[in-house]
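Saturday, quiet lab. Running sequence design on the structure tokens for the scaffold JK sent over.
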């Protein structure tokens, strides 16, 4: 894992120094940017393997920088804890959200996991959750040997949930994000699409993989 290049985007020199020291010790190569504008310049010159992004930046803030970072895992490291901005950032392209103050062990574990995921997804067009595999080329899902045919809308819903497996996705965000893949889903039909999806999984092995979080939205079911 060592030798991977990590960009720290944080204007707090002390926190940046602490992060750099932790990452240096693990054998990562580290670059720094102290503002959103500088971050975009650094990213135009080089492509790190992972980005640690603070939200409170001078110039362009972290929320404004995020859409410019394409094809790289971005972990948001922020003192902001409200759940709405968390969900929004995760749907806006961040792979994870770590709240300051953080434990270095936890942060390192998450960095290692996301670097591993990035390496896997670069080599395979599949998303995996427990024993479900979703092929993003063919739009087919499978559980073990059993292939499951999905409608366009079911595929779009499942893809979004599997891309954010630990997160509750609100109904409005689900509708907003899946509109890219499928134009025919409304709030009233969303429940029906999800219930059809759950039924297709249950028919294979009796298991439920998607849970409704009352009043909020849906997520992949953790044990």
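Result came back. Writing it out in full:
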């Amino acid at each position: 894992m060592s030798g991977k290049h990590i960009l720290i985007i944080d204007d707090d020199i002390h926190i940046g120094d602490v992060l750099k020291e932790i990452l240096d010790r693990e054998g990562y190569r580290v670059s720094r940017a102290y503002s959103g504008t500088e971050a975009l310049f650094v990213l135009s010159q080089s492509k790190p393997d992972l980005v640690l992004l603070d939200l409170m930046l001078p110039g362009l803030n972290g929320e404004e920088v995020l859409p410019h970072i394409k094809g790289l895992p971005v972990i948001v490291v922020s003192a902001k804890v409200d759940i709405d901005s968390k969900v929004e950032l995760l749907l806006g392209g961040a792979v994870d959200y770590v709240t300051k103050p953080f434990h270095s062990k936890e942060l390192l574990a998450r960095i290692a996991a996301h670097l591993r995921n990035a390496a896997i997804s670069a080599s395979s067009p599949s998303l995996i959750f427990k024993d479900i595999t979703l092929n993003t080329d063919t739009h087919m899902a499978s559980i073990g040997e059993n292939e499951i045919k999905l409608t366009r809308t079911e595929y779009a819903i499942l893809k979004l949930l599997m891309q954010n497996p630990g997160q509750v996705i609100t109904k409005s965000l689900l509708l907003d994000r899946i509109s890219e893949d499928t134009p025919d889903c409304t709030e009233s039909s969303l429940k029906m699409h999800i219930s059809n999806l759950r039924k297709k999984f249950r028919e294979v092995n009796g298991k439920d993989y998607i849970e409704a979080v009352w009043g909020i939205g849906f997520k992949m079911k953790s044990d």
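Notes for JK: The chain is about 45% helix and 20% strand. The first helix runs from residue 13 to 25. Ask whether to fix the surface positions before the next round.
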